[in-house]
Write a structure and sequence with these properties.
By secondary structure, this protein is of the alpha+beta class. About 35% of the residues lie in helices and about 15% in strands.
Length: about 350
C-alpha cells in the first residue's frame, strides 16, 4: 500500500498541482468538488469499490539535469546509478553541490595537466636552445654518431703513416774547400771568376785579362818563397779595371787549410800585377795598395794602383777601395765554391740513401 495523500494521474492533463496550505481537500468528480482523503488505504470511488493504488511515475522520469538535454532510454537507465554515486537515493533528483565539486575537481586536474605540459614544452625548448648555443662555432656532430658511442668508446681516426726518409744534416761548405781530397770540383780561372764584369758595392769593374801559372812566377821574390815553402800548387790571377784604377786578384792553391793559413801569416811581398787586355804595366816601381787573406785551402792577394802606372798618394781612396772590392769578391767566390759542392753532395745522398 502507498502511504500519504496521492493524486490520480491523468495522462492528458498531467499531474494536478499540489494543494496549497489554505486549499481544502478535494474528491474525485467534477472539478472543484472536494473529496475526503484518508491516510492509509484508499477507499475507492463514488461506488465505494476498492481501487488500485494510485500510479507513481518511475524515478528515471525525473526531469533532465541542466545541460543534458533529452535523454535516451540507455541514459534513463543509468540515471539512478548517477544519483547513487553522489550518495542520494534514486528518484531524489541531482545533487547540485556534488556536481559543482566534481566539475571543479575536473577543472583543477585539467589545469594541472596544462601546466605540466607547458613546463615540459618550455624545458624542451630550453634544451634545444642550449644545445644550439653550445654547438655554435664548433663542427657539428651527427646525433646518431653521438648516441651510438660513449665518450670513451668513440672510434679514433686512423693514425697517419709516414714514409721512411732520412734527411742528412746540412753539410758545411768549409769542409769541401779545406782539403784537396774533398775539394774535387773543377778549378779554373774562368770558373772561379766567371763573367766579364765585377759588380760589388754598387761599383762596376771590367775584366781585362786572366791567367793561371806557377807560384814562383806569379808573385814577387819574397812572396814566392813563402808560397813554395808551404806547398803552393798554382796561382790563378785576374785583372779588373774601374775608371783610372786597375786591380789584380791572385789566388794561391794549397793542399789543406793549415798550409794556406801559414802562407797568409808568413806573407811578404806582393802578387805580381797582370797586364793585358788593353791594360799596360802598372804598379812597377811605384806606390800601390796590397791585401793578404786566406779561406779554406786558398790564400788570396790583391794589388791595386793607377792603370797608367802613376803614383798614388796617402790620401788616395779609389785604389784602396778597388783592392778591398777585389779581396771581398775573391772571398765570396771561394765560399761559393764550397756551397756548390755541399749542395751537390746533399742531392747525391738523398738520391741514393743506401750508400
Amino acid at each position: 500500500m502507498t502511504e500519504g495523500p496521492q493524486q490520480p494521474y491523468h495522462p492528458n492533463q498531467g499531474w494536478p498541482a499540489p494543494p496549497g496550505p489554505h486549499d481544502s481537500p478535494r474528491t474525485p468528480g467534477t472539478p472543484g468538488e472536494a473529496r475526503q482523503v484518508l491516510h492509509g488505504n484508499i477507499v475507492g470511488g463514488p461506488d465505494h469499490q476498492p481501487q488500485r493504488p494510485a500510479w507513481t511515475p518511475p524515478a528515471e522520469w525525473a526531469p533532465p539535469l541542466p545541460g543534458q538535454g533529452t535523454r535516451g532510454p540507455s541514459q534513463q537507465q543509468q540515471q539512478p546509478q548517477q544519483h547513487q554515486q553522489f550518495g542520494r537515493p534514486a528518484g531524489a533528483g541531482p545533487d547540485w553541490s556534488a556536481l559543482a565539486d566534481a566539475n571543479a575537481s575536473r577543472a583543477r586536474r585539467r589545469k594541472r595537466r596544462l601546466i605540466g605540459g607547458g613546463v615540459l614544452a618550455v624545458a624542451a625548448v630550453a634544451g634545444i636552445v642550449a644545445t644550439l648555443v653550445a654547438g655554435s662555432g664548433r663542427p657539428s656532430v651527427s646525433p646518431v654518431a653521438a648516441a651510438s658511442y660513449a665518450p670513451s668508446e668513440r672510434p679514433l681516426p686512423p693514425e697517419p703513416s709516414f714514409s721512411e726518409l732520412s734527411v742528412p744534416a746540412q753539410l758545411d761548405p768549409l769542409v769541401f774547400i779545406s782539403d784537396r781530397e774533398k775539394d774535387t770540383a773543377p778549378l779554373s780561372v774562368a770558373g772561379l771568376f766567371p763573367g766579364k764584369k765585377l759588380v760589388w758595392g754598387g761599383r762596376t769593374y771590367t775584366k781585362a785579362t786572366a791567367a793561371e801559372g806557377q807560384c814562383s812566377s806569379a808573385a814577387s821574390a819574397d812572396l814566392a818563397a813563402v808560397l813554395r815553402r808551404n806547398g803552393c800548387g798554382r796561382v790563378l790571377r785576374v785583372t779588373y779595371v774601374g775608371g783610372e784604377v786597375a786591380v789584380t786578384v791572385g789566388v794561391a792553391v794549397f793542399d789543406d787549410q793549415s798550409a794556406a793559413g801559414k802562407a797568409k801569416s808568413q806573407a811578404k811581398g806582393y802578387v805580381m800585377p797582370l797586364s793585358g787586355g788593353g791594360v799596360g804595366a802598372f804598379c812597377h816601381a811605384t806606390s800601390c795598395r796590397t791585401t793578404t787573406n786566406a779561406k779554406g785551402r786558398y790564400a788570396y792577394f790583391t794589388i791595386a794602383g793607377l792603370k797608367n802606372n802613376g803614383r798614388i798618394t796617402a790620401s788616395d781612396t779609389v785604389a784602396r777601395q778597388a783592392g778591398t772590392d777585389g779581396s771581398d769578391y775573391a772571398f765570396n767566390r771561394i765560399v761559393q765554391r764550397g756551397k756548390d759542392q755541399a749542395a751537390a753532395a746533399m742531392v747525391s745522398t738523398v738520391a741514393s740513401p743506401g750508400h
